[in-house]
Design goal:
7 helices, alpha+beta, 30% helix, four-stranded mixed sheet, Ribosomal Protein L22, Chain A, 26% strand, single chain
């Protein structure tokens, strides 16, 4: 078992441009969906969508799901344009065999890697240079924790840790493990195609310990993990194939808000 200290340096993300993203560095952007309500701003988000994304929008039965998906798509597109001088509406994406969205190959586009996740009112987008990355966010208030899920998807040690917690801590501990597992699976691009019980985490005061079942043919030293609590009731996990001394930089963001408000110096100067 390898000991991973999950370093967290919540330094501000620097100026726009690829030079602001170094190898071995993770940028994490997040937006509260409920904070984006201006219809004109939402109209601009819709103008960025591809035909495929527009069709996806139409399939959502509930307004809240369409709204969250729209904000998610806008966050991804504008964040990628933060690093590369390409208009947000011109990014093209492809899906891996297991459904992970990736940037479609294009001449002149750097090897950016990204991953996005949403839960409740929060959307997060992680960006790295060359390194595979997975992010997962969960609202700990969601009523999904059950002992059956723990027994099925967690290792024996993880299950024992969750079940030994006090009643008020069990749900949070469950989501801490779950987000770490999901982030790793998403970084691999396999989703739930791998049995999550084969990835074994251990949470303690000194950080995160990790080991793999031999059937995964992976090594803990190849990965770095972060477990963050940026706002109440939400757990965020990041998995990245980068050195253990890598840095996470975090910044809230409302896509295109600077352009919408028509003034300079807003937090989203990337537009």
């Amino acid at each position: 078992m390898s000991e991973l200290r999950a370093p967290v340096d919540l330094s501000p993300i620097g100026a726009a441009g690829l030079s602001g993203l170094e190898r071995g560095e993770i940028h994490l952007w997040y937006v509260r969906v409920g904070s984006v309500v201006e219809e004109e701003l939402l109209r601009r988000y819709r103008s960025l969508l591809s035909a495929t994304e527009q069709l996806r929008q139409e399939k959502f039965a509930f307004h809240k799901d369409r709204h969250r998906d729209l904000v998610t798509r806008a966050l991804v597109r504008t964040r990628l344009s933060y690093y590369q001088a390409l208009p947000p509406g011109q990014w093209a994406f492809v899906s891996s065999k297991y459904g992970r969205p990736e940037i479609a190959p294009r001449v002149g586009v750097p090897p950016l890697r990204f991953n996005v996740s949403h839960s409740g009112d929060l959307v997060v987008c992680g960006v790295a240079l060359s390194s595979d990355i997975g992010v997962d966010v969960e609202c700990v208030c969601r009523p999904v924790y059950t002992e059956k899920i723990v027994r099925r998807h967690f290792s024996i040690g993880e299950a024992e840790d969750v079940l030994s917690q006090s009643p008020e801590r069990k749900r949070e501990r469950f989501f801490e493990y779950w987000t770490l597992k999901e982030a790793y699976a998403k970084a691999l691009g396999l989703g739930l195609a791998i049995p999550l019980s084969l990835v074994r985490f251990r949470l303690g005061e000194s950080g995160v310990s990790l080991s793999f079942d031999h059937r995964l043919h992976d090594c803990a030293s190849h990965w770095s993990f972060w477990l963050l609590r940026l706002i109440p009731d939400y757990v965020i996990a990041i998995a990245a194939a980068c050195p253990s001394n890598s840095t996470v930089r975090v910044r809230p963001c409302v896509p295109l808000v600077a352009e919408f408000l028509g003034r300079q110096g807003c937090e989203d100067s990337a537009g």
